[in-house]
Amino acid sequence: MPDAVLVDGYNVLHAIPRFAPRGRDVAEAREAFERWLATAAARQRVAETVIVWDGRHGSASAPRPQRLRILYTDATKTADERILELCRGPYAGRAATTWGVSSDREVQGPARQLGFTAIGAMTFYRRWSSGGGARRVRTAGPPTGSEADPRPP
Predict the structure, then answer these.
(1) Residues in contact with 113: Cβ distance below 8 Å, sequence separation at least 6, in sequence order
(2) Which of 77-86, 120-129, 136-145 is the least confident region?
(3) Is the pTM for the entire model greater than 0.70?
(4) Which of 10, 96, 128, 147 is least surrounded, with the fewest CB atoms within 10 Å of its CB?
(5) What secondary structure, in 3-state letters, does the chain show?
(6) In terms of C-beta density within 10 A (0-12 exposed, 13-18 middle, 19 or more buried), how is residue 24 classed?
């Protein structure tokens, strides 16, 4: 079980059909995902969960779930870059107990090289929805199947 989880916000949001906006308001979809993530983190007893969103799209007045740290990037940085900064910075000493959640190869590869467990969006969702967060997560090798980034290399 990880002590901390770093989540690539929009990458994961759009990969999970339950939360993907697909015609709905993005802010509502984001808030629903944040609530689910906070609840799932509490159920899994994860001490720290950080979700990184591209850009400043959040509402300062919207209530934020407890147990969830929400970061927004500025215009000069992507969520991918911010997550990798977290991996190289404050979480560097905690790589063995921290998961990076993204289906993006540009996050997974470097995170794995730094010693983090990289897990794809749907695998993460399935495990945490079923309460099976303690199962072994693949930490090496290229992503396969639904874990692969659909963009061409």
Answers:
(1) none
(2) 136-145
(3) yes
(4) 96
(5) CCCEEEEEHHHHHHHCCCCCCCCCCHHHHHHHHHHHHHHHHHHHCCCEEEEEECCCCCCCCCCCCCCEEEEECCCCCCHHHHHHHHHHCCCHHHHHHEEEECCCHHHHHHHHHCCCEEECHHHHHHHHHCCCCCCCCCCCCCCCHHHCCCCCC
(6) exposed
Tokens of 126: 């399935």
**Integer angstrom CA distances of residue 43 from 106, 120, 132, 134, 135:** 29, 20, 10, 12, 15
Question: Contact 117/102 with Cβ under 8 angstroms?
Answer: no
